[in-house]
Amino acid sequence: MKTYKIITLCLVLISLVSCVQEEHLKTVTFKVDMTAVKPISQVGVKGEFTNPPWKEILPLTDTNRDGIYELTVSQTTAVSNVEFKFVHNGIYELLGKDNRKLHFEYKPETLVYEGVFNNPDAKQTNK
User: Fold this and answer.
1) Fold topology of 21-126
2) Could you report the per-residue pLDDT of 35-72, keeping only the tens digit for each?
3) CA 30 to each of CA 95, 114, 120: distance values in angstroms, whole numbers, following the listed order
């Protein structure tokens, strides 16, 4: 009977370990078109990827002054997607609507997410 318990325990432990997804480096460039927003002050992104989630605004910048604000972040994770919203002057976009989502594959990735402020349509591309 003791051998049976040991084998059962080993099988349970193996199944738990095999359920853990391997973490991979994800590099994401967020781009948001702010050309329809006037006047523009602080532009950022807020979501599940900050620690703690949804508490910190990561600032986006427009270094070439084309109205497209950008930020590149890298994080090692095993999640398949994260939710976020763009923020202008501390106010969330798409009020009352679903959050934006980034979808990941289980491998290292470099992604570009391009959207327009307050418009749910967006494009996610792998580089």
Assistant:
1) Immunoglobulin-like (2.60.40)
2) 999 999 999 999 999 889 999 999 999 999 999 999 99
3) 19, 6, 14
